[in-house]
Amino acid sequence: MDTTNMAGTSAKSGITKVNQYGMAPLKPINYLVYGMGNFASQLSWTMVSTYLSIFYTDVFGLGTGAVALLMLIAKVWDGINDPMMGTIMERTHTKHGRFRPYIVVGAIFLVIFTVLTFTVPGFSGPAKLAYAYITYIGLGMSYTMTNVPYLALPVVMTRDPKEINKLNAAQMMGMTIGQIILNLFVLRLVEWFGHGEQAAGYHSTAILLALIALPMFWAVAALSKERIDVKKSEQGSIIEGLKLIAKNKNLVCALLYSLMNMFGMLGRISVAVYFYMHCVQNFAFITIFMMMQMIVGTIVMPIAPRLCMKYGKRNIAIVSMLIQGLSLIIIFFGPAESIPFNFVMMVIYGLGYIAGPSGSGMIVDAIDDFDLKYGYRNDGMAFSFSGMATKIGTALANSLFLVIMGKFGYDNMFALKGQLEAATESSVIADLTSQISHIQFGIDMCANLLPGIVFLLGIIPLLFYTLDKPGYMDKVRDGLTERNNNRGI
Length: 489
What we know:
The protein is mostly helical. The chain is 77% helix and 1% strand.
């Protein structure tokens, strides 16, 4: 452990201040800067998860089937290379720590590939499709290199569970604020930069966001000091690490929860624009609806750490999944074109963000509990599997929902609407209206019913998570502190 960073000294008394875990308490700037990292991530991640599908289908010129296959292949590979990144991180030992060097380098590639992904090349055919594969897969690998070490930082910044919860809440706050700003300005920026040419608008918007994100990532790397070290002798082989991940039942439960949560949340985000364009049919309110749940989430997020400490991370996560799942199912059966109805339901859905830090917090608890029991700390690999769960969940959701929309005939939506505007015979109007309604049903199902069901299914692994017993994790961390003090680390 880096003891030079453990002690804090009072300016008045000169007395070193440490908490019960023998470390200097984190300062407000630590939470602010760490939260800023996820804000920077959203300038790429939310741009991709919210707008890439519609960019590919409506601007780049790919069909829904081609986009579905592209996203499935890219995201599954992206998820697979997360554990590779975790393994590399765990075997990295530099004077700057195990994680931070990768954030510095990865951020450069991340912003470059974000711009390239939202660029329409000057060629067509198979070469154009290959360009989409190369840039999107490169973007995913760059995100892995940056985000896996970023999410793992709390477990090496402090042992205090309250501080870990605050750090996770800070990054969730950064996420929701980033999502709000992205959804508030992206379409406006695309229109403003493009002057009616969407390809140019998306490209210029991506450049602007990249220029904002890069210094934020570097600030995180500079100010989020790694104060907990892991000796090389305490790290087993890669195969042993994988076996221990599988052996850690509570970690597996937390990862399955993350998978289902991301499947529902990011799966919905990926097709929500289609729902608001073609089912709600009010373009003026798209931005408001896209960010409404995030605004609510930003409001409730600050109280999440206190609720988690009082009622338990698992219980808060269960309540969150119920809120989000039931609200989406109600939207599916409700009046799609009603603005007040959608507004109220998005506010209720946003209350589900109350579980913001729960997922990361449960993973940290599972890591600490396993460390005390077995003397093996696989934090890098654990968080890489968390990233894998997020990306595979997103891949499955994006691809599945796009395939379903394609089966319902989305590729013909604009043509059918054009024919409907020109139609004069009542029988033709009725037939076209029926076909459009059929497509709208498929979009509604993908944006609301299916994600809602997945949220409810995500409660199942939480029922088997057992580390939320009052006082249990306090004893675990006291045991870790005593053990490490005895070892002189």
